[in-house]
Amino acid sequence: MFGTIARLRIKPGMDARMLELSHEYDTLDIPGFRGDLVYQSDDDPRVWYMVVVFESREAYVANAEDPAQAARYARFRELLDADPEWNDGAIVYNTLV
Asked: CATH code at 10?
């Protein structure tokens, strides 16, 4: 499995919209997508950490290169103060998926 962990800073008042968008994304049939987790920081509620899991690096890259994903990202990015901090990598241990 392969995925990313992203640090996000949500614009003030955009929490509900971000959750709506996240639920919408989870209804899509994206090849290789296995799931995601989102954490809200106790220290700063506007800081969220998003973990996204794909079945393989190839599926992750194919999604990243898909023009439909670029359009989804543009909608997502509008809700953030700045670009996310992305940390991509192989999942070497997992008990969730």
From this structure: 3.30.70.100
Residue 18 falls inside a structural domain: yes
Report the 3 state secondary structure along 31-61.
CCEEEEEEEECCCCCCEEEEEEEECCHHHHH
Mean pLDDT on 21-27: 89
Kindly state the percentage of the chain with pLDDT values over 90: 90
Both structure tokens of 6:
């992203």
> If pLDDT is split at 50, 70 and 90, which confidence band does 19 have?
very high
Residues 6 or more apart whose Cβ sits within 8 Å of residue 80: 8, 9, 10, 11
Residue with tokens 């992203």: 6
From CA 50, how far away is CA 86, in angstroms rounded? 9
